[in-house]
Amino acid sequence: MTVEILGQFQLATDAFAKLAAGVRPDQLALKTPCPEWSVRDLIDHVVKGNLMFTRVITGAEPPAVDVGADPDAAVLASSKALYEAASAEGVLTQIFKTPMGERPGGRLIAIRINELSLHGWDLAQATGQGFELPDPVIATCFQVLQAILPEDRTSTPYDAEQPAGPDASPTQRLIAFAGRSVTA
Q: For residue 120, what pLDDT is reported?
């Protein structure tokens, strides 16, 4: 994977951070399409994921980031830490040990793009915001999902592929492929 993946990471981060900025304080306790998570939990999950991958890449503890009362700032701070770590010379091709096995740095960033994108849709659904992803981000997410998802998804956090109507947007097709219900 090339430095192009870092640009896609930035696009996915910007889309998610924009949604997080649109979350009102009274919406933080709302349920999301991820049944075990509230809006605050979902944003916290994304922030912690960014920090975990930063730690994997750098081998050091990243700065503490608290979702608190400013979720978009937390998303941006955790994403900035990961972006800077991944931008170092050779990181995208370097192999890292992760809880999921050994992965090149570029694949780790692609996984984060997928997380930001799918959970961006979850956040938009929970808070009533619109959400569309750029085509290169959608393509990367499809590649990640096709690489990681088994035919039988019962032991994964992804449900079976859902139907997407003929008028579904590219983002809605991605979301349906990931097992979330969409209406076009």
A: 97
